[in-house]
Write a structure and sequence with these properties.
172 residues; alpha/beta; Rossmann fold; seven-stranded mixed sheet; 4 helices; binds adenosine-5'-diphosphate; binds magnesium ion
């Protein structure tokens, strides 16, 4: 993806701006969308998902779903619900349908932490978001830099959708 011409690079300076970015991105999402968050522990995947939940107007709190694997957040505004999945402990052969979620994934916005393999195997369209922090930074300070690379993949993310995405995440 490093050479993907559709990739969008955004930098944030703190957890609040990562949340804000996700909040703005939520405006271009629709039911059936799949987002894949890739990055090491502490990169900001759950923080990003919190902003997404705010932008979508779903019932919170959004927290790490590590121990429950998946959590469904219903919409408070008549929009798509947020399905938040932690795929870390799902086997390599797992399928989202196996989770037996009380949710229709064709109508929800689904976010999968650690779901890169899953998405590449199962979905023809998804938005990959690679979160990285500089090597020197290892702490949990809420004010640290992160880089986010957004890689829109598949027919859902045609030229018009990519343009809308770029507009939404542009920092002005
Ligand atoms: P992950 O889900 O990827 O393991 P979390 O979102 O749970 O990561 O944790 C990220 C931690 O890093 C939080 O403690 C958050 O406050 C902190 N942090 C510092 N700077 C940032 C930033 N720019 N973006 C996101 N989180 C940040
Ligand atoms: Mg997490």
């Amino acid at each position: 993806s490093a050479q993907d011409p559709a990739a969008l690079d955004v930098a944030t300076t703190d957890a609040a701006s990562t949340r804000d970015l996700a909040r703005r991105l939520a405006a271009v999402l629709r039911g059936g969308d799949l987002l894949v968050l890739d990055g090491p522990l502490g990169a900001g995947k759950t923080t990003f998902t919190q902003g997404l939940g705010e932008g979508l107007g779903v019932r919170g709190p959004v927290a790490s779903p590590t121990f429950v694997i998946a959590r469904v957040h219903p919409s408070l505004v008549g929009g798509p619900e947020l399905v938040h999945v932690d795929a870390y402990r799902l086997g390599g052969s797992a399928d989202l349908e196996d989770l037996d979620l009380d949710s229709d994934l064709d109508r929800a916005v689904t976010v999968v932490e650690w779901g890169r393999d899953l998405a590449e195997r199962l979905a023809d369209s998804y938005l990959l978001i690679e979160l990285r922090r500089p090597d020197a930074i290892t702490g949990d300070d809420p004010d640290e830099p992160r880089t986010l690379r957004l890689v829109p993949t598949g027919p859902r993310w045609d030229e018009a959708a990519r343009a809308a995405l770029a507009g939404a995440v542009q920092i002005s």
